[in-house]
Specification:
This is DUF4410 domain-containing protein. It comes from Caulobacter radicis. Keywords: Signal. The protein has 166 residues and is of the alpha+beta class. It has one domain: Double Stranded RNA Binding Domain (2-Layer Sandwich). The chain contains 6 helices and 6 strands. Strands 1, 2, 3, 4, 5 and 6 form a 6-stranded mixed beta sheet that branches. Strand 5 and strand 6 form a beta hairpin. The radius of gyration is 17 Å and the shape is globular. The N and C termini lie far apart (33 Å).
Length: 166
């Protein structure tokens, strides 16, 4: 399917439902199978460049991601999540109200064994949420929306047996 057809289909879906969510997540180095069942995330660390976010974003992101991970990673072996946020685009509310918009997140998520300091899982986490005029209020909550989406994407990639829901 060519790009124009894909864009048209996404536009129609967004108009019909309010929002369309696209995952761009993949395992770079997947967490070993036994770790998936035996691990939990004990700490979330966030690094980011000069992204346009609110002053309280770092705390909000860590809390919302931790809440999602608490729902899917319930083992005893502690891991530290190190997040490198590379892209965080928020839809312009005025444009979303007129024609639609997109909230976009691109990041790296590394799971570190707390005991050894060794990287045991590495993931590219990406999410794009396209919203139409019907979703202008929901799209305006980009920081909350994309923080939750990050947690859900990491759950689906690293701990797929029980994806956390809100």
């Amino acid at each position: 399917m060519n790009a124009a057809k894909m864009a048209a289909l996404l536009g129609l879906a967004a108009m019909a439902s309010g929002c369309v969510s696209l995952s761009r997540s993949a395992a770079v180095e997947d967490l070993p199978k036994d770790w998936k069942a035996q691990s939990r995330v004990a700490e979330v660390r966030l690094t980011r460049g000069e992204l346009k976010v609110t002053d309280g974003f770092d705390t909000l992101f860590k809390q919302r991601v931790q809440a999602k991970l608490d729902g899917c990673a319930k083992g005893q072996r502690p891991l530290r999540l190190e997040v490198k946020l590379e892209r965080f685009d928020k839809a312009n509310p005025a444009m979303t109200a007129l024609v639609g918009g997109a909230n976009v997140l691109r990041s790296q998520a590394r799971l570190i064994d707390v005991r050894t300091g060794r990287v045991v899982g590495d993931y590219a986490i990406g999410k794009t949420i396209v919203g139409s005029r019907l979703a202008v209020i929901k799209m305006g909550e980009a920081e909350e929306q994309l923080s939750d989406a990050f947690g859900e994407e990491l759950c689906a990639q690293a701990f797929p047996t029980a994806v956390a829901t809100r």
